[in-house]
Specification:
By secondary structure, the chain is an alpha/beta fold. Helix content is 40%, strand content 13%. α4 links the parallel β4 and β5. The relative contact order is 0.21. It is found in: Cytoplasm.
């Protein structure tokens, strides 16, 4: 069953250069593979403004390329409009969740459902840890978690 209504999904992390662009690219590939990309608008954003305008971390891009996925994403900060536009804002950890809920309380017509992306993980890994200070292996772990979570999210949202 496919909904004819367009759904909107935005992964969010602290800086929008590691976890959230990986999640965005993974989700975009999944909906394209399932031939439902015309039913989804996908983007990602940051809680902070540290990296606005920057490309994803080179290790994130390398990890995605290793899985045949390209992205031209540039980091951006979550806006008030995002809370009114997106149906789902899926974040990576409790700190993101707290910050997003606080920001959403300042938005009059917030329609976004704000959740941890990890809440969809069949392996119950609730938190997607920031790989920034880690190794290539940590980026691969983030990628694998995002694949599991995004697949489960997509199945549940149909």
């Amino acid at each position: 069953f496919l909904s004819s209504e367009m759904s909107l999904c935005s992964p969010v992390s602290v800086g929008n250069i590691c976890r959230s662009p990986i999640a965005e690219a993974v989700f975009r590939k999944l909906v394209t593979d399932e031939k439902v990309e015309n039913q989804w608008m996908t983007d990602s954003a940051a809680v902070s403004d540290w990296n606005v305008g920057r490309s994803p971390d080179a290790r994130a891009l390398s990890c995605l390329r290793n899985h045949g996925i390209e992205t031209a994403h540039k980091a951006r900060q979550v806006t008030k409009d995002d809370f009114q536009t997106f149906d789902y804002i899926l974040c990576m950890d409790e700190s993101n969740l707290r910050d997003l809920k606080r920001k959403s309380n300042q938005v009059k017509d917030c329609k976004a459902k704000i959740e941890l992306l990890g809440s969809y993980d069949p392996q119950k890994q609730l938190i997607i840890e920031d790989p920034y200070y880690g190794s290539e292996k940590d980026f691969e772990t983030v990628y694998e978690q995002c694949v599991r979570c995004c697949k489960a999210f997509l199945e549940k949202s149909h």
